TrEMBL record, chain A:
Gene3D superfamilies per UniProt: 3.10.20.30, [2Fe-2S]-binding domain
Keyword Ubl conjugation recorded: no
PANTHER family: OXIDOREDUCTASE WITH IRON-SULFUR SUBUNIT
Organism name: Actinomycetospora lemnae
Identification of the protein by name: (2Fe-2S)-binding protein
Chain segments carrying region Disordered: 155-174
Domain 2Fe-2S ferredoxin-type: 14-59
TrEMBL record, chain B:
Organism: Actinomycetospora lemnae
Pfam families reported in the protein's UniProt record: CO_deh_flav_C, FAD_binding_5
Keyword annotations from UniProtKB, A to Z: FAD, Flavoprotein, Oxidoreductase
PANTHER family from the UniProt entry: XANTHINE DEHYDROGENASE SUBUNIT C-RELATED (PTHR42659:SF2)
Protein name from the UniProt record: Xanthine dehydrogenase family protein subunit M
TrEMBL record, chain C:
Keywords: Molybdenum, Oxidoreductase
Keyword Phosphoprotein: no
Coiled-coil blocks: none
Aldehyde oxidase/xanthine dehydrogenase a/b hammerhead domain: residues covered: 26-141
UniProt xrefs under Gene3D superfamilies: Aldehyde oxidase/xanthine dehydrogenase, a/b hammerhead, Aldehyde oxidase/xanthine dehydrogenase, molybdopterin binding domain
The keyword Cytoplasm belongs to this UniProt entry's keyword annotation: no
Protein origin, superkingdom: Bacteria
Region annotation Disordered: where it falls in the sequence: 800-830
Protein name: Xanthine dehydrogenase family protein molybdopterin-binding subunit
Pfam families: Ald_Xan_dh_C (PF01315), MoCoBD_1 (PF02738), MoCoBD_2 (PF20256)
Organism: Actinomycetospora lemnae
Length: 174, 289, 830
């Protein structure tokens, strides 16, 4: 067992974990953060994407012990005071999800993408989410959603626009 | 799927890491970015008893200039490689190739040294490293076994076979030193079936063009053998030529010389040889601007 | 209370954003694997690495020693080898159905079949211990090739049934009286100088549905009812089949399909692991969970497609089809799935497609091999048929030297000919192929792209342009119960809905269909809002739990709207019917003077009225209602359609083929689909996009391949190559509308249309790009290697006389029948 201390969606957690425990398992099984899901065992699908210290990673390909001392942001930490993150809102507005299983990872990666490139072309969006598989939408409305969010997250476009992107979350007591 | 059980240590210095390797023996495995290792562990294709996480060693990260070289710490992430201004200016080829590695999430976590030490013949960074004559600094037990020492191995000797490098038992890769190719054009021409797939074949080309004439060229091939292959015949055919499509394509005909590509469902060896020629032409033309 | 003042404008046809999104975009989801019950145990299945082997012995002693292991069971320990997992579709009276156990007892018949199960305190420990189970196998010869499997002396997958042939199913229009005899038509064509015969063999490769949520099942045996949560498309069928299969009282089982992450047919099953989880939970009296890994899913969840198609068409030289003969071999894999043997048979009604074909025969033999079983995958039988006919239409046009769209026009059913009864006996109610095609051609700039194609040809561009067509129809809305009965299907095709009017005027609508991404909660709310005149947000759709939704036939075959949605309409009509006497009583009017509109009963010619939501409160209080009726306006309805619905459309694809590398790049994709009246255009567009992606992926990217030992080569998502966003383009989609006359909403299905239509359009376009180089055919998926090889082979044989009969459609270099013999498809067969 290894002792780890992480900040997840703004709360600090300390736990003893087996070294083999994956970050995604830790989130789901220990913290109850089941919003982040597992879709494969080869890091292809991206469904488990979270932000680790402000950068998107596939939480199935990171050990929980590797996240010791880090800040993790999951799909469950995006809302601010009951307000959806602009990317969540854009996914809803543009019908960018059907079964919704890939959606948490898709949204987390799309936010990371805009943090990197606030005004991406269609091709840049497509390449920016190439680590995330969706079987329902054909990606077309996901691309639209990212374009929509990009336009709304441009500086000055929205008061909540910058939440989540490349920011760390303030830690709380736990 | 969940990996089999293992012990875990996270050294904070290279010396500690080498001590951990010594203690762990045959069953120890180094964890760099983990983007190849974690899937392998999850599929239980490997079950090391000890994982040595190199993520806590600050000296292994970062890019710096040293005279005529750019030195990249082995634990520098692909993401940091793609954003580094020094590399953009002096070693554009490694940056171009790194941009094509896997996907953004994997590039955030994966490392240059990890990918090179993994030595997957379809991996995208070995061929540019070979083309660029990179030098690999390997740390390990000193000769007398009492402390730690380093040795440097050239790219041509570093890659030994499928998933096999010159890194010996008890050693680890600490940095990769690239000569400067300031002002050279660069292109990594990658050919795969879908965006997520490994390269069927890829060509790493960097060329120096003076007044429309190619004055120097370095070309490495991905997945044309168990190790990356240098297309030396093409390089020498290019030097002194004007960078026209006809000249380049003619020179590229020699691209498959000295290769021994594998055959699989995605490509027969003849097809890989053909692709090497076509993609070499395209890569050189793009690199020559 | 909200009443009729706020009654919405028409909801049907609005692009409502989905109700179900909120929890999915915030992570408040309820996937089966999220279930974490106190004392939950986890299982891992020990699986055979061999395709075909006798089990000589299983040593579980080491596994039992692993700390945290609760039990290790072999088949005999659980009686799992005595289970007969159900096949609900015995397609013929003499169909051969081998026993399909939940765990193999003495012999394994495909790589991945379960032989033992480990129960442990965590999934990780269960997996650790599963690796300690020692199984002694005696390998047997695998059976991999369908034709070899049917040959005399072939190794038998199931020696006890004496053959590898599962069933042969034949339809002959001459015998059925729906058309002429194909044998006669072909005979006549052979001796007729004015006819040609076109023969082709096409291969439908094996695919994997790859729903994004891996399957998962949790069983809690501790209550009065045994509760199973499962990632399934078919909770109702699963419940009934568990009762029948295991001899459990049906009323003691509750099945819940919570949020389900995609299915595409892949979750229409009674899976061995569902049964195993239940058996283990019963044995231990504790809740038990099974969640598969992706590699486990690719290996063992059922596959789809996998056919060899031998097609023969006779056609007059001026382009009239005179006969169509279809011979299929369909790979069942090692066992029969829930509806597996019926899947290829659905194609019997679709090979004739939108065309007027005077003589038709369909002859399908289902074959057992030692591979993962096949069953429904998006489109189920209809994509295979559509591919066959739409590829053949191009090939025939080529032989005739006709423009491929012109050839189709010449043979399709004209819009004024509807309703039209086809040679395969279905009656197409409505459609307008001309309208969809004309709009598609215009959106696509067909003539402009043909010009661009010519220019690239003339320039000898490295990247050649190809244009492919698919004009398709499908039968969906499974299905009229009588038709299913005539096809020996094990159940009906009706669907149910109930509406519960709550005291505050809100409506709970319980449906028997079971969504897993389709957006039923939104679309059905729109229907109810219009029918009852209540606000969209006042409607809640309940589904996926047999305790609330006790009766239903679930979601597949594009049936949810065209069957389930109509049940909702019928239930709403009953609510209004029941409310009417109460309204009359409240308004002190006679029922005959009332009319219902916009959620309100009004007395004709007055402004007196009462809203349906007020009536709901009135019957809840029940202080004052008419004598002789119950104080209740809730209603339940079952709808059994009289016919299928027949969506159709025209799909046009342009690709660039890099002739140096063989790489195929999508260039433009246009489709115009007629799916009848549209409830929610946003959802319809989304269904089309996703369907296109899957159909295109069959053409270009996906294949479940086995090696010569029967080992699955595409066992992870590294090897089973799904398209990413970067591999696809934005599609141009549009709709034409002819309302279906088989249901009161005038709707048709949309879930499978994109998948059914797109595959042949893409392959036709790939071939069109490089046919001038001598390429005749390429197997799917048309990978760069296959495309390049086809070009190489064609150019290598260019001097041979028998290779000269090659042209693009429209180029006028047709061959005669004798040149095109079966299997003469040079190039690309790898």
């Amino acid at each position: 067992m290894a002792r780890i201390r992480t900040t997840v969606d703004g709360l600090v957690y300390e736990d003893d974990v087996e070294p083999r425990m994956l970050l995604v398992q830790y989130l789901r099984e220990r913290l109850g953060k089941t919003g982040t899901v597992i879709g494969c065992d080869t890091s292809n699908c991206g469904a488990c994407t979270v932000h680790l210290d402000g950068l998107s990673v596939k939480s199935c390909s990171v050990l929980a012990v590797q996240a010791n001392g880090s800040e993790v942001l999951t799909i469950e930490g995006l809302e601010r005071d009951g307000q959806l993150h602009p990317m969540q809102q854009a996914f809803h507005d543009n019908h960018a999800l059907q079964c919704g299983y890939c959606t948490p990872g898709m949204i987390m990666q799309s936010i990371d993408l805009l943090g990197e490139n606030p005004d991406p072309s269609e091709q840049e969006i497509r390449e920016g989410i190439e680590g995330n598989l969706c079987r329902c939408t054909g990606y077309q409305n996901i691309v639209r959603a990212v374009q929509d969010a990009a336009s709304k997250m441009k500086p000055g476009a929205s008061a909540t626009a910058d939440s989540g992107a490349k920011q760390t979350v303030a830690g709380g007591g736990a | 799927m969940i990996p089999a059980q293992f012990d875990y240590v996270r050294p904070t210095t290279v010396e500690e890491a080498i001590q951990a390797l010594r203690d762990g023996g045959d069953d120890a495995k180094l964890l760099a970015g983990g983007q190849s290792l974690l899937p392998v562990l999850r599929l239980r294709m490997a079950d090391p008893s000890l994982i040595i996480d190199l993520g806590g060693i600050p000296e292994l990260k970062g890019v710096r200039e040293e005279g005529n070289e750019v030195v990249v710490g082995a634990m520098t992430s692909h993401y940091d490689v793609t954003r580094d201004d020094t590399l953009r200016q002096h070693v554009a080829l490694i940056q171009e190739a790194t941009k094509t590695v896997a996907d953004p999430q994997v590039r955030h976590k994966g490392t240059l040294g990890g990918a090179l030490a993994h030595a997957d013949p379809a991996g995208d960074l070995a061929a540019p490293a070979l083309a660029l004559d990179a030098q690999f600094v390997i740390a390990g037990p000193s000769q007398d076994g009492s402390g730690t020492g380093t040795r440097t191995v050239g790219a041509a000797d570093f890659f030994e076979d499928y998933f096999t490098t010159a890194i010996g038992e008890g050693e680890l890769l600490t940095e990769i030193r690239f000569p400067k190719y300031t002002g050279w054009g660069a292109r990594y021409e990658k050919f795969n079936r879908v965006a997520q797939a490994w390269s069927i074949v890829a060509v790493a080309a960097t060329v120096k063009v003076d007044g429309g004439t190619i004055s120097d060229a370095r070309i490495g091939l991905t997945n044309m053998a168990g190790t990356p292959v240098r297309a030396r015949a093409v390089e020498s055919a290019l030097v002194g030529q004007s960078a026209t499509e006809e000249n380049v394509r003619k020179a590229a005909q020699a691209a498959a010389e000295g290769t021994s590509p594998t055959a699989d469902a995605d490509a027969g060896s003849d097809y890989r040889e053909h692709l090497a020629r076509v993609l070499t032409g395209r890569a050189v033309l793009a690199a020559a601007g | 209370m909200t009443t009729t003042e706020n009654a919405p404008t028409q909801e049907i046809g609005r692009d409502r954003r989905r109700k179900e999104d909120r929890r999915l975009i915030t992570g408040r989801t309820r996937w089966t694997d999220n279930q974490a019950l106190t004392g939950l145990l986890h299982i891992s299945v020990v699986r055979s690495p061999f395709a075909h082997a006798e089990i000589k012995g299983i040593d579980t002693s080491a596994a039992k020693q692993v700390p945290g292991v609760v039990a290790v069971y072999t088949a005999a320990d659980l009686g799992a080898d005595q289970v007969q997992l159900p096949c609900a579709w015995p397609v013929t009276k003499d169909m051969k159905a081998p026993q399909r156990p939940a765990l193999a007892g003495s012999r394994v018949n495909f790589a991945g079949e379960g032989v033992a199960v480990v129960v442990a305190r965590s999934a990780a420990i269960a997996k650790d211990a599963a690796e300690q189970v020692e199984v002694d196998y005696d390998e047997l010869e695998p059976v991999l090739d369908m034709e070899a499997a049917l040959a005399d002396g072939a190794t038998l997958v199931h020696p006890e049934i004496g053959t590898n042939a599962n069933a042969q199913w034949v339809f002959d229009s001459g015998e059925a009286g729906s058309g002429g005899s194909v044998a006669e038509a072909l005979q006549k064509a052979e001796s007729d100088d004015d006819q040609i015969i076109v023969k082709r063999r096409f291969r439908q490769q094996r695919l994997v549905p790859v729903f994004m949520e891996p399957r998962s099942t949790v069983v809690d045996p501790s209550g009065e009812q045994l509760v199973m949560w499962s990632s399934t498309q078919v909770p109702h069928i699963l419940k009934t089949m568990l009762a029948l299969t295991l001899g459990l009282p049906e009323h003691k089982i509750r099945v819940i399909a919570p949020d389900v992450g995609g299915g595409f047919g892949g979750k229409i099953a009674v899976a061995p692991e569902e049964v195993l989880t239940l058996l283990v939970a019963q044995k231990l009296g504790k809740p038990v969970k099974w969640t598969e890994t992706r590699s486990e899913s690719l290996l063992t969840a059922h596959h789809g497609r996998d056919q060899i198609q031998d097609l023969t068409m006779s056609v007059t030289k001026d382009g009239q089809i005179t006969g169509l003969d279809v011979k299929l071999l369909a790979d069942m894999g090692a066992y029969l799935g829930l509806v597996g043997p019926g899947v290829p048979i659905l194609g019997a009604f679709m090979f004739n497609a939108i065309y007027k074909i005077p003589a038709y025969r369909f002859d399908c033999t289902n074959v057992f091999t030692t591979k993962t079983l096949t069953d429904a995958y998006r489109g189920a039988g209809r994509p295979e048929a559509t591919f066959g006919i739409e590829r053949l239409m191009d090939e025939a046009a080529l032989e005739l030297g006709m423009e491929p769209m012109e050839f189709r026009r010449k043979n399709w059913i004209k819009h004024e000919e509807f309703p039209y009864t086809t040679v395969s006996t279905l009656t197409y109610d409505t459609g307008n192929y001309e309208a969809a095609t004309d709009q598609a051609l215009q959106m696509f700039d067909y003539d402009g792209l043909r010009r661009e194609q010519q220019e690239r040809r003339q320039r000898g561009d490295v990247k050649q342009l190809g244009i492919g067509i698919s004009t398709f129809t499908e039968m969906c809305g499974l299905a009229p119960s009588r038709v299913l009965g005539s096809l020996d299907y094990g159940a009906g095709g009706w669907e149910t809905a109930s509406i519960r009017m709550l005291p505050t005027g809100k409506a709970e609508v319980v449906v028997g269909v079971s969504p897993h991404g389709q957006g039923h909660e939104t679309a059905f709310s729109q229907i109810v809002a219009d029918q009852l005149g209540v606000p969209f947000d006042d409607v809640e759709i309940l589904h996926g739990d047999t305790q609330s939704s006790y009766k239903g036939l679930d979601t597949y075959g594009s049936r949810s709207l065209a069957v389930g949605g109509i049940a909702v309409v019928k239930a709403a009509e009953k609510v209004i019917e029941k409310a009417k006497p109460i309204a009359a009583h409240m308004l002190e009017a006679s029922e005959g003077d009332l009319e219902f509109s916009g959620g309100r009963f009004t007395v004709k010619g007055t402004d007196k009225g009462v809203g349906i939501q007020d009536i709901a409160l009135a019957v809840f209080a029940a202080h004052d209602y008419p004598e002789g009726i119950e104080p209740d306006i809730d209603a339940h309805a079952t709808f059994d359609p009289e016919n299928f619905s027949f969506p159709h459309g025209t799909h046009l694809c342009a690709v660039e083929v890099d002739t140096e590398t063989g790489f195929v790049q999508l260039y433009k994709y246009v489709c115009v689909d007629d799916v009848g009246n549209v409830i929610n255009p946003l959802i319809v567009e989304g269904q089309v996009h996703g369907g296109l992606a899957q159909g295109i992926a069959q053409a270009l990217f996906e294949e479940a391949a086995y090696d010569d030992q029967g080992t699955l080569l595409s066992g992870t998502l590294v090897d089973y190559t799904l398209p990413t966003a970067a591999d696809l383009i934005s599609f141009d989609t549009a709709n034409t509308t002819t309302a279906s006359t088989t249901n009161p909403l005038g709707v048709k299905g949309v879930g499978e249309a994109g998948t059914i239509a797109s595959t042949p359009a893409v392959v036709n376009s790939v071939l069109d790009a490089i046919r001038h180089l001598g390429v005749k055919d390429i197997d799917m998926p048309t990978t760069p290697y296959r495309v390049w090889s086809a070009i190489q082979n064609a150019s290598g044989h260019a001097g041979r006389a028998d290779e000269a009969n090659v042209a693009s459609p429209g180029a006028g270099l047709g061959s005669t029948a004798s040149d095109i013999s079966r299997g003469d498809t040079q190039g690309g067969h790898l």
